Amino acid sequence: MVSVSRNFGYQFEDSDLNNTESSGISCDRLRQALKKCIKESYCVQTQARSAKECINAHDGTVPDKCFALLQNFSDCKKSLVDMRSRFRGRKGDIVT
């Protein structure tokens, strides 16, 4: 039999996140990428607001990349409950 590799070649733009080991928690690398993106945003750095306030404000101080990561993280967490994902795999999860 031929074994199929689970590594689909998904990579983050940030090399630090690509080199982190999997913690075994589902969607963990997406969560870490989202946290890092929000922490480095103008809203958190200079305006000293909380991450939740920055995400809910939608005033342009958080990059669109962070909102894309938030959507991917949400899809990944939702797919954990979806029974169809047993066959299709988790959406947006980075497999290493």
TrEMBL record:
Pfam families: Pet191_N. It comes from the Eukaryota. GO terms for biological process: mitochondrial respiratory chain complex IV assembly. Keywords: Disulfide bond. One of its GO terms (cellular component) is mitochondrion. InterPro entries: Cyt_c_oxidase_assmbl_Pet191 (IPR018793). PANTHER family: CYTOCHROME C OXIDASE ASSEMBLY FACTOR 5. Belongs to the PET191 family. Involved in an early step of the mitochondrial complex IV assembly process. This is Cytochrome c oxidase assembly factor 5.
